[in-house]
Automatic annotation (TrEMBL):
Species of the source: Selenomonas bovis
Highest taxon in the source lineage: Bacteria
Name used for this protein in its record: Bifunctional protein FolD
Gene3D superfamilies (alphabetical): Leucine Dehydrogenase, chain A, domain 1 (3.40.50.10860), NAD(P)-binding Rossmann-like Domain (3.40.50.720)
Oligomer and partners: Homodimer.
GO CC annotations on file: cytosol
Gene symbol of the encoding locus: folD
Domain Tetrahydrofolate dehydrogenase/cyclohydrolase catalytic residue range list: 6-123
Cited SUPFAM superfamilies: Aminoacid dehydrogenase-like, N-terminal domain, NAD(P)-binding Rossmann-fold domains
Function: Catalyzes the oxidation of 5,10-methylenetetrahydrofolate to 5,10-methenyltetrahydrofolate and then the hydrolysis of 5,10-methenyltetrahydrofolate to 10-formyltetrahydrofolate.
Domain Tetrahydrofolate dehydrogenase/cyclohydrolase NAD(P)-binding: 142-288
GO molecular function (one): methylenetetrahydrofolate dehydrogenase (NADP+) activity
Length: 296
């Protein structure tokens, strides 16, 4: 048996098409183009790649985009002052501070991202947006889990009544993913490093989400036959002759799991692409809310 491959590229194209349509409708109605500001601090090479991808997606959809590059010597005060300016900036509807932050700023991540107005928080990291998600109210939802959910919907994977197991409990992926699946009436279990007999739990899953950050962590024998496996992991292996930059792999032993699963996302070419595409949707959603609120 061989699983259906859920192509991130295909679903991302659909998300972007939706976002572009909604952006054009807003331009028509309000004469305003949705705008994103991405703040990047320091020179981390992976972050540079991700930020470039986000900027490129904005160009592709003809959204307004600003990339604000700050040196790693920037102080927290300077950084939050820059966020405050963007909070007031009428051209900007979404603000994102690229993570991880370098050096001492890393320990102030909550305070820094929390400075972004909830209405412009297109990462969905602000406690107000976290609260809205848990309470089942409209708000901005973190891009990776929101992208996974929309993919499941478009792929016709049944969530209502399904057993869903999320491995990993981060604020960025695991917890919001669990909230979204619960909202869709799945029976949700969240596993983590203290979970006993993890394999017995994951083998119950109709929908298995891996977000642990460890290559090959989910093996074929942990997957229920026919299950949908979503691999959120982005791990770079040490460089070798074939992969001078290091091979990119997920948290799932793809070759093994694909023999057992009914459907599976690859890495690369899976969830990462959905994340960027969903960011575009969040920017347009944020713009729509702000423009509607300004009207009256
Ligand atoms: N404030 C903030 N928001 C984020 O959403 C955020 C962040 N910080 N910090 C880092 C993580 C990671 N992330 C990814 C985005 C795109 C790909 C992506 O495009 N992946 C491609 C290829 C990537 C490659 O070749 O390196 C793929 O999986 O096929 C992956 C990972 C967003 N993040
Ligand atoms: Mg991927």
């Amino acid at each position: 048996m061989s699983a259906r491959i859920l192509s991130g590229k295909e679903f991302a194209a659909k998300f972007k098409e939706d976002a572009a349509k909604r952006a054009r409708a807003l331009e028509e109605k309000y004469g305003v183009t949705p705008g994103l500001a991405v703040i990047i601090v320091g020179e981390d090479p992976a972050s540079q790649v991700y930020v470039r991808n986000k900027d490129r997606a904005c160009q592709e959809l003809a959204l307004y985009s600003e990339v604000i590059r700050l040196p790693e010597t920037v102080t927290e005060q300077e950084l939050t002052a820059r966020i405050d300016e963007l909070n007031y900036d009428k051209r900007i509807h979404g603000i994102l501070v690229q993570l991880p932050l370098p050096g001492a700023l890393a320990r102030r991540e909550k305070e820094i991202t929390g400075r972004i107005l909830p209405e412009k928080d297109v990462d969905g990291f602000h406690p107000v947006n976290v609260g809205r998600l848990v309470m089942g109210e409209p708000g901005l939802v973190p891009c990776t889990p929101a992208g996974c959910l929309k993919m499941l919907e478009l792929a016709g994977i049944a969530m209502d009544g399904a057993r869903a197991v999320v491995v990993g409990r981060s604020n960025i992926v695991g917890k919001p993913m669990a909230s979204l699946l619960l909202r869709e009436n799945a029976t949700v279990t969240v596993c983590h490093s203290h979970t006993k007999d993890l394999a017995a739990v994951t083998r119950e899953a109709d929908i298995l989400v891996a977000a642990v950050g460890r290559p090959g962590f989910i093996r074929a024998d942990m997957v229920k036959p026919g299950a949908t496996v979503i691999d959120v992991g982005i791990n770079r292996l040490p460089p070798d002759a074939d992969h001078p930059r290091g091979k990119l792999v997920g948290d799932v032993d793809f070759a093994g799991a694909a023999e057992v699963a009914g459907a599976i996302t690859p890495v690369p070419g899976g969830v990462g692409l959905l994340t960027v595409a969903m960011l575009m949707e969040n920017v347009v959603t944020a713009a729509a809310c702000q423009l509607a609120a300004q009207k009256d």
